[in-house]
Amino acid sequence: MDRYPPPGARGIAGRWRSPLRGPWLTSVYGAVLLAGLPLVIITGLLDYAAYSPQFGQAFPGDVGWLRLPPFDWPTRPSWLFRVTQGLHVTLGIILIPVVLAKLWSVIPKLFDWPPARSLAQVLERLSLLLLVGGILFQIGTGLLNIQYAYLFGFDFYTAHYFGAWVFTAAFVVHVALRLPRLVSALRSRPLRRELHTPTIRPEPPDPDGLVPARPDTATISRRGALTLVGGLSVLLAALTVGQTLDGVWRRTALLLPRGRQPGEGPNGFPVNRSAAAAGVQMTDGWRLTVRGKDREVTLGRAQLLAMRQHTVRLPIGCVEGWSTLQTWTGVRLRDLAALVGVSAPDSAHVRSLERAGLFNQATLQANQVLDGDSLLALRVNGADLSLDHGYPARVIVPALPGVHCTKWVADIVFRTGSDA
């Protein structure tokens, strides 16, 4: 097998002659990913939990033995989802140059021949295949999703969730196999010395074959390569982080079009789905139906405004990564529950006037209903809600994903253990 590789295999492998390649540079990129990717994974799983999968409203719904341990998503701190989702999207984007640089540094490994010299190598190459394929799939679909470019031909949420588990498993196996060599490679060359070295010499030959047998002339130093990759990550951060900063900085979120400031005034903050896109047309005859176990009440907007009003300052965050902090005024959800004789609801089912779509309804946990800052909001920043922001009434709950802060609310059913 050593003597008879596939046609062109040796020629292709011989083309990778950059003197930068070697265990040290690969390990530097690997160390950055080892620090950043677990955070992306953990925040992604937390965001899935924020959708309350116990109510069957997280996507995908049926995940078999990959389901997370059940727990109620907390309402405190109120910025929890804002941080987890923003960090998941922003850090994922920032790490893209590092991922590509790491793939560039190990590309000769893809042309190793023979492909399997031992069981350990088979496991390593299999984990590498799933690792590379998994991370490219997650990055590609994630970027398309935040751009609202649904070109998949499959359900994004399902594919992204299961793809994350495939990638995570491959990542854990790969780290277990490669961590000792990563540590030894980093110790072989002090980082400070490399950052002060403008010239470059190839690393000594290594057992993994990353160092080219016939290195070409250097066109950039390792210091320059690290600066280039780091600079690209900083640029992506600058074009992304504005999604979580209100005011002028929001206009810099060029990579997240839904996270930019759409206008001025009290209602001039981002919106995920407009009333036109949702097919919602409001008339003067709107009424809210509130139901309990034994009682039902119908309220108009004037009646809701006549009830005791509460004002809270809460963030609202989107699965795409953007979030914003606004001041909301309305009726406490727990006051509406008490109005229909449910003093201790176990959950609340909220339905929108929107007739279609994945998020035209939501079920809220008991702690979300009973939190003193959970509102059926009627106004924002001192003005009536605009139609795009949910007029005549919308839900706003601390730390709840924005898509479950239902807009254009039609009815609310408060449930107890006996009728949940």
Descriptive notes:
With 420 residues, this protein is α+β, with helices and mostly antiparallel strands. It has 2 domains: 9-238, no CATH class; 275-415, Oxidoreductase, molybdopterin-binding domain (Sulfite Oxidase, Chain A, domain 2, Alpha-Beta Complex), CATH 3.90.420.10. 39% of the residues lie in helices and 13% in strands. The protein contains 12 helices and 10 strands. The protein has helices spanning 9-13, 23-50, 80-94, 96-106, 119-146, 156-188, 191-195, 222-238, 275-278, 301-306, 333-339, 366-370; strands at 288-291, 296-299, 310-317, 323-332, 347-352, 361-365, 375-380, 383-384, 394-396, 409-415. Helix 3 (80-94) packs antiparallel against helix 8. It is elongated and about 80 Å long. GO terms for molecular function: oxidoreductase activity. The chain crosses the membrane at residues 24-46, 86-107, 128-150, 162-183, 224-242. Keywords: Membrane, Transmembrane, Transmembrane helix. Residues 283-416 form the Oxidoreductase molybdopterin-binding domain. This is Oxidoreductase molybdopterin-binding domain-containing protein.
Concise structural overview:
This protein is of the alpha+beta class. The protein has 12 helices and 10 strands.
Describe the secondary-structure layout.
Layout: H1 9-13, H2 23-50, H3 80-94, H4 96-106, H5 119-146, H6 156-188, H7 191-195, H8 222-238, H9 275-278, E1 288-291, E2 296-299, H10 301-306, E3 310-317, E4 323-332, H11 333-339, E5 347-352, E6 361-365, H12 366-370, E7 375-380, E8 383-384, E9 394-396, E10 409-415
Parallel strand pairs: 1-10
Antiparallel strand pairs: 1-2, 3-4, 4-7, 5-6, 5-10, 7-8, 7-9
Helix pairs in contact: 2-3, 2-4, 2-6, 3-8, 4-8, 5-6
